[in-house]
Amino acid sequence: MHRGITVYFCRCAKDANEAAPNKKIKHKNYPIILAEQHTTFIKQHSSRLGFAYCGIARAVQLDDDARKLERWLMKGYNGKMEYMERNFDLRIDPTKLVPGAKSVITLLLNYYPEQQQQKDAPKISKYAYGKDYHYVIREKLNELLFVMREEIGAIDGRGFVDSAPVLERSWAVRSGLGWVGKNGNLINKKMGSFFFIATLIVDIPLAYDDAFAKDFCGSCNRCVEACPTEAILSPTVVDGSKCISYLTIELKDELIQPELQQKMDGWMFGCDACQDVCPWNRFSKPHDEEHLQPIPEILNLHTAEWEAMHEDVFKSLMRNSPLKRTKWQGIQRNLKAIKTSG
Ligand code: SF4
Ligand code: SF4
User: Fold this and answer.
1) Is any atom of ligand 1 closer than 6 Å to the C-beta of 264?
2) Ligand nearest 240 Cα, by number?
3) Mode of pairing for the β-strands spanning 267-269 and 123-124
4) Which residues does residue 103 pair with via DSSP β-bridges, in sequence order?
5) Which end of the chain is more exposed for a tag (fewer CB within 10 A), N or C?
6) Whose CA is closest to 312, among 300, 326, 328, 297?
7) Rounded distance, CA 129 to CA 310, Å?
8) Does pLDDT of 246 surpass 70?
9) Which residues line ligand 2 at a C-beta cut-off of 6 Å?
């Protein structure tokens, strides 16, 4: 699964500021013991909010990662996702997103569902079974920043999820949460890769985790072999313009190229093929996040029912779902493409 990347700036800085106590934090001579106490508080509270993991890295410039992304963009692997080419300086330097940024907090939210779709349903990526994760995570980030301000003081902070200016997987690796697998997803040794990554950049020093230094893909090549469109070109390098997630979500009003239509493999929205085969996902356990509980129609509707669905019905059923991103027209286009692939 490669979720469609949307530029999304969480409004938690503004929202939580309204209720923030006026306790000024002096960073000069900020004692280590205080940084550790605050870190413990943040990690405990993130767990209470339902995040499975919380890792913290020092806010530094990400020159190497940004250059890697630049090379990827130069090859056109972003397809029509032009927004990925913008805001390059923001990607490199977290202080451009939050002035005086000291720490980058990375949070993982499990989305692995207990129930799966019916066998003959057009396939939908698991992350999209429930309510749009942007809303779910925004609320959690707002609350986390709110309680941090109450407990610690006047923190400047900004939350992000699936946001183009933030290299979230790089921060997750730097925070010790896992490694980037050959399929380009962050993989955590204990929970695999079916999780959302949220990022909170703040201007207070915290206790930093050790970066994750190893790669546990080894000689495994399952994701590369399983990719229907051969989009995984080399370890960690995915040609986004060939990825089914891009084709079914990001391509908007355009038609999917005929040679790729042949390879859709039944995916109507997104694609999980390279995650479903990953041996690290045998450790996936169902989430217990009520807002991510599957919309019944996503699990149960058959192809013919999706095809016959009126636009108004789609809008009503999917009003809080990630599927609204591709709109009814996109779903109908994808269904036609799936038929082509037989
Ligand atoms: S299997 Fe291929 S097409 Fe599907 S999400 Fe992974 S890279 Fe994209
Ligand atoms: S399927 Fe194998 S190679 Fe691909 S990400 Fe998982 S462990 Fe790595």
Assistant:
1) no
2) 1
3) parallel
4) 58, 202
5) C
6) 328
7) 20
8) yes
9) 181-183, 187, 217, 220-223, 277-280
**DSSP percent split of the chain into helix, strand, coil, nearest 5:** 40, 15, 45
| Ligand found nearest the CA of 260 | 1
Q: Locate tokens 């790669």: which residue? A: 215
Ligand 1, atom 4, lies closest to the CA of 271
How many CA atoms lie less than 13 Å away from 245 in the CB half-sphere?
26
Taking Cα atoms as reference points, which of 4, 12, 101, 99 lies closest to residue 49?
Answer: 12
* pLDDT tens digits for range 103-155: 999 999 999 999 999 988 999 999 999 999 999 999 999 999 999 999 999 99
Annotated catalytic residue within 156, 162, 209, 272: 162
DSSP lists the bridge partners of residue 234 as: 237
Given pLDDT bands bounded at 50, 70 and 90, which one contains residue 27? low
> Among this protein's residues, is 93 annotated catalytic?
no
* Ligand 2 pocket test target in 173, 217, 234, 236 with most atoms within 8 Å of CB: 217
| Number of residues that make up the chain | 342
Q: Can you list the alpha helix ranges (DSSP code H) found in 154-272?
A: 168-174, 222-226, 244-245, 258-261
- Encode burial over 304-313: b for 16+ CB neighbours within 10 A, e otherwise: eebeebeeee
Q: How confident is the model at residue 16 (pLDDT cuts 50, 70, 90)?
A: very low
pTM above 0.85, yes or no: yes
Distance of CA 180 from the midpoint of ligand 2 (Å)? 9
Q: In this structure, what DSSP letter does residue 300 have?
A: H
Report d(CA 253, CA 223) in Å as an integer: 29
pLDDT value at residue 18: 39
Amino acid identity of 185?
N
Q: Could you tell me if 169 and 186 are in contact, meaning their C-beta atoms sit under 8 angstroms apart?
A: yes
Which ligand gives the minimal distance to the CA of 126? 1
User: Which of 232, 265, 268 should be mutated for ligand 1, with most atoms under 8 A from CB?
Assistant: 232
Atom of ligand 1 nearest to the CA of 242: 3
**Predicted confidence (pLDDT) per residue in 256-313, tens digit:** 888 899 999 999 999 999 999 999 999 899 999 999 999 999 999 999 999 999 999 9
157 CB neighbour count, 10 Å cutoff: 24
Q: What are 248's two structure tokens?
A: 């079914």
